[in-house]
Amino acid sequence: MNRLDVEKHLQGWLDLNLGMDWLTAGCIRQIDIQQGEAYIDVVLPYPFASVASSLAAAVQDHLADQGISSHLKLTLQVPRMRTRPGMAALQGVKNIVAVASGKGGVGKSTTAINLAHALAAEGARVGILDADIYGPSLPTLMGIAAGTRPDVVDEKHFKPIHCHGLDVMSMGFLVTEQTPVVWRGPMATGALMQMLTQTLWSDLDYLVVDMPPGTGDIALTLAQKVPVTAALIVTTPQDLALIDAIKAVEMFRKVEIPVLGVIENMSTHVCSHCGHEEAIFGHGAGERLASDYAVELLASLPLDGRIRLAADRGQGWLEDAHMLDWSERYRVLARKVGVALARGVSLPDNRIPTLVMN
Q1: Average pLDDT of 263-272?
Q2: Could you give the CA distance from residue 358 to residue 356 in angstroms, rounded to a whole number?
Q3: Of 121, 134, 187, 275, which one's alpha carbon is 20 to 30 angstroms from that of 28?
Q4: What's the pTM?
């Protein structure tokens, strides 16, 4: 047995998350043959903590069938985002993922927070920014006490609040719950840029940005001035939500930010008493949107009162023994997002445009 033998047989096993074998994907960093056994170092570009053991076991079993005894070391290394020539990456952040919707009330903020939780649970270093200047909900959804303020460093930088393993920043930390933000567009976008660029993010693999609903000033500012890696669109199955979600997709297409995929929230409702499942908000809108724009339907998430309770209480729910089904849904989503981003690093449209107003 030699290295070439191991490489040949590794090509016969596919990572179903990546959709290709590790050798083709460039994940094999080193193969050492010692005393007739193969020691293989693997670096994966997507978070994989909950499936690490099963991945390693599957490869070892595959190689064992070929008469090769192996030992695997799996490491996560999220690729760094590309930026437009002349535009520096955001300090302390590799990838910025905008979670957006065309309208409010579709569960975008809850989805963004749960995705951030899941990415972190799968082994990534993650932060979340509440970009809704006028209606920040992140402090409540994260269970952060009212009146919590970020520490200020050198009178010009914020230290993000650390909660549930995430770096967290929101306008909600800078105003009180009773203080409305009565600002015109330039003031709001200025505040967003200040929070984004003057926060001391702690070497993050992913910064999830919970976008405000719609396609206004905040969204355009992010597209023009921030090196956003890609966007996710959240919708519900009803036609009204689909109409607005289409506008969000079109906005990102116009500013040439890749849309990774669609998340359909509140797809169905499962009765907690009899188990009957019903599509109370309609059916198929997420599939139609994904199909029309040639993107992936990343998840279809049912309506569940437990998620609402967890959000209202600001509880981290991924480790809750009564919510293992939801934990698995979001962990799968997190891996899909990680894989899509890793593949998207080489896309020619993965850059930040300059907006020209005619």
Answers
A1: 84
A2: 6
A3: 121
A4: 0.89
